[in-house]
Amino acid sequence: MKNPFIKYLYQKLVWYLVAFFVAVSLNFILPRLIPGNPVAVIVNQMAVGGVQSEALEKLYNTFMQEFGLDKPLYMQYFEYLKNVFRGNLGTSFMLYPGRVNDLIGRALPWTIILQVPAILTGWIIGNLLGAFSAYKGSRFDSVVFTTSLVFSNIPYYCLAIVLLYLLGVRFTIFPVGGGYGFGMIPTFSWHFITDTLYHYILPYCSMVLVAIGGQAIGMREMSIYELTSDYVNYSRNLGIRDEKIIRYVFRNAMLPQITGLAISFGTMMGGALITESVFSYPGIGSLLFTAIRQSDYPLIQGCTLIITIAVLLANFLVEIAYGFIDPRIRAVQLGER
Amino acid sequence: MKDIFILLFRSKRFIVGSILFLSVLLFALIGPMLTPKSPFQMVGGLFSPPSDKFILGTDNLGRDVFIQLMYGTRTSLLIGLTAGIIATSIGVTIGSIAGYKGGITEEILMGITNVFITIPSIVILILLSIAIKTRSALVMGLVIGITAWPWAARAVRAQTASLKTREHIDIARISGFNTFEMIIWEILPYMFSYIFMVFILQFSGGILNEATLSMLGLGPYQTVSLGVMLHWSLLWEAVRTGAWWAFIPPVICLSITTFSLMSMNASMDEIFNPKLRRG
User: Fold this and answer.
1) pLDDT at residue B125 is higher than 70
2) Which of A28, A222, A315, B126 is the most buried (most CB within 10 A)?
């Protein structure tokens, strides 16, 4: 008999591949629905900017070839797929002849360094707070719940703007944006690292605060369900210590929250992108913001593709972890049931 | 049904939420009628602070922020409402058919739903928005609605699947109802409160998605919305100039709107799920 865990993995993998193909196809087809020839539009814009006509022609030919606009649509599609799998995202319009790969490669580490810790911290603190608040009940619970409700409903970027204004502009405690000090060159010096951390605090905090709220609400709800269940009453009647019961409750209520983590990656990503552009943080979000403003389609496509891959990958990892953690799924996988 | 209303209005959270929401609604509906000025009219100096003449000052082009706020809230609500209605209708249709039919129909419909849940909706939103060059507020609501339905579909399917085993369904089946009649007359009425909650979630999600898209520069065309106001503040560095009146009002408006909707939703959840009710 085949290993059931491999089978579980395999099933999940197939679904994620389907989702990936749909996303790549949308990424291919949607920008091509823009009426007119995008290359001509861009080249005309540059002509207004006073670029030599010879250079313009070269530019036009490069992009026509790269987009393959002279070929039939299905050929363009295969060309696009081939490039995506080779990891070639094309040439940027606005920073010609800059490669989209290089631009994204430079921005991606910033985004990862900012978002992964922020999402995880928010998730952990939020869950602890939610479980504790459900257990405590009464006044404490109602204060935590209302505060969480307020925080989780402030869009990320709104809190970001308010924090930036209050702590950056008004009271000048923190820098007003960027990933590191103006005029600094990224190196591995002590000075650069401390400066980067200093710039990191505000965007990080604004994301963590909102994430805590959302997670706390979910965890509180799950814990309340668990707290009223039979096994809790039974354990209480047996005289088992409270701390032990909380541990049971926490572990059971945690399970849906792990799926919740996977779900929040996607939604958080959207908000986080704008948080970056609020702070002019040099990540994917700010890149996307400028790309959209300049109608730089190859760069927009590159960003959306990277975002899709990141979210799908994160979801997939969470799903595998979930398979390990949930004893029910594990039992099925090991063929115990 | 009457009992539910009594319970709802006994909940402090519901009352606060609905009062807040009604005030936002009145502000957005009646406000623009009371002023002859357009939100695009340049009436004052660049970034002039709040004064007697301009309650909330002016923006980077000397336009009255207070008037923009009234029109902007109206557009945001309109987009959120459109998105909410569309997402809920698609979600209810797909979810109830999948849940009631079961079998291969369910597999296919839920397969599609899951694929669209896994792809981050922001990506589809960005791509769709750049493909549609002239976006009116309604078109934007439509775009947001057709990317937001998978959640609604999943929730409605689960409810339908559990409703399906009830006795009145069996009786209706013996009476010869077809699938369509069954869903309309025997299933949907029993989950009306649930659908309403899904709608409220989608409504507030639509408002937030509008703001996200608009802030990225993909907002409604030649219209002011709360997201567009924030986009202008980002673009013209209102935050770093210290012109708080250009971005704090839309931030507050946006937060109050979503907060009021979500607290209404949370209190309804407490009432319809008695397990969550405590004390």
Assistant:
1) yes
2) B126
DSSP assigned state of B49: P
Are B115 and A19 in contact (CB < 8 Å)? Answer: yes
Considering only CB atoms, A292 lies closest to which of B218, B263, B276, namely B218
* Closest C-alpha to A268, from A145, A114, A115, A128: A115
Distance CA A257, CA A268 (A): 15
Touching B: A residues 142-181, CB under 8 Å: 146, 149-150, 152-155, 157-158, 161-162, 164-165, 168-170, 176-177
The list of chain A residues with pLDDT below 50 reads 1, 336-337
| pLDDT score for A184 | 66
Q: For residue A312, give the nearest of B118, B122, B278 by CB distance.
A: B118
Give residue-wise pLDDT tens across range A299-321.
Answer: 888 899 988 888 888 888 888 88
Quote the pTM value.
0.86
Amino acid B87: pLDDT: 95
Beta carbons within 8 Å of B183's beta carbon, 6+ residues apart: B96, B97, B100, B160
Report residue A186: phi and psi, to 5°. Answer: -60, 115
Average pLDDT over residues B32-59: 77
Q: Report how many helices (DSSP H) and strands (DSSP E) chain A contains, helices first.
A: 13, 0
Residues of A in contact with B119 (CB under 8 A): 19, 22-23, 26, 308, 311-312
Between positions 92 and 111 of A, the ones with CB within 8 A of B are none
Residues forming a β-bridge with A91: A99
**Under 8 Å between Cβ of B86 and B146:** yes
- Indicate which of A30, A202, A217, A223 best probes the interface with B, i.e. most B CBs within 10 Å of its own CB: A30
Mean pLDDT for chain B overall: 85
Question: Are B266 and B197 spatial neighbours (Cβ–Cβ below 8 Å)?
Answer: no
List, for residues A72-128, the tens digit of each pLDDT value. Answer: 778 888 888 888 888 888 788 777 777 888 888 888 888 888 888 888 898 899 888
Chain B residues near residue A138 by CB distance under 8 angstroms: 279
Scanning every residue of chain A, which has its alpha carbon at the shortest distance from the alpha carbon of B242?
A: A169
Which one is the CATH code of B2-35+62-276: 3.30.420.150, 1.10.3720.10, 2.40.110.10, 3.40.50.880?
A: 1.10.3720.10
Check: CB of residue A323 under 8 Å from CB of residue A144: no
Rounded to the nearest 10 degrees, the angle between the axes of helix A297-325 and helix A100-136 is 40
What pLDDT is recorded for position B206? 93
The reported pLDDT for the residue numbered A1 is 46
In chain B, residues with a C-beta closer than 8 Å to the C-beta of A18 are 115
